[in-house]
Amino acid sequence: MSTPIIQIKNLMKTYKLGGETVHALNNVSLEIKKGEFLAIIGPSGSGKSTLMNMIGCLDRPESGEYLLDGKEIGKMNDNQLATIRNQKIGFIFQNFNLLTKLTALENVELPLLYGGVSAKARREMSLEGLKKVGLAERAGHLPSQLSGGQQQRVAIARALVGNPAILLADEPTGALDSKTSKEILQVMKQLNELGHTIILITHDLEIAKQAGRMVSIQDGQLLENGGELVGHLSIY
Question: Which GO terms describe its molecular function (predicted)?
Fold first, then answer.
């Protein structure tokens, strides 16, 4: 069994809503192995966005433990969390989040620019990222000159370029038609075969089924594929 890259134990997160306390995460525990392709599925209000924010180091739990590569995330300050996000996690969003005035290559280069990588190395690494998603020949195109599927491929290349430990994809096919969605999922499968750990957040069961493993979240609690509540000791 490969080493877990993520170990989540008994996470709790509550919100106040209309005078009531809502358990967005209710004693959630989960392990994700290196190289795994995991889908987390749930409807609106199930807690999946809160869990995604926790995994992506965008929020902290009220209690419980989150270890990423063996490091406790909950005790880190904002600057440390920003460093973890920049170095360890590649984000893929539903609406691509590309800068319209930059070319595909320049969009992919952005994380490396912020990371202080030299211009020559940025270009080489970004071209390699575009090559991985089959878009090297479109490097000089603006987002407006690309289809929705091509724009999402650029966004995937941008998430990949710093070689993060995890790709965290939030509804990556939500703005795409069914044919293009299948193409994007195929790209993600290919990346997973290359060894990338991928966590896919979705509300769509057919999309979630494309992953190697699926857990569902409901009322802030996790359920494994067969419907068994995910326990805090072992889920394998």
Answer: ATP binding
The count of other CB atoms within 10 Å of the CB of residue 122 is 21
Give Cα 227 distance to the centre of its chain. 23
Considering only CA atoms, which of 206, 207, 227, 197 is closest in space to residue 215? 227
Name the superfamily (CATH) of residues 35-60+76-224.
P-loop containing nucleotide triphosphate hydrolases (3.40.50.300)
How many Å from the N-terminal Cα to the C-terminal Cα in the chain? 10
Task: Provide φ and ψ at 179, rounded to 5°.
Answer: -65, -45
Closest by CA to 123, choosing from 112, 137, 115, is: 112
CA-closest candidate to residue 166, choices 191, 131, 136, 147: 191
Q: How far is CA 4 from the centre of its chain?
A: 16
Domain ranges (residues) in the chain: 35-60+76-224
Please write the tens of the pLDDT for every residue from 67-98: 998 889 888 899 999 889 988 999 999 899 99
Q: What is the pTM of this model?
A: 0.88
- All residues at 6 or more sequence positions from 184 whose CB lies less than 8 Å from its CB, including other chains: 149, 152, 153, 156, 172, 173, 176
Tens digits of residue pLDDT in 5-63: 999 999 999 988 888 888 899 999 999 999 999 999 999 889 999 999 999 999 888 99
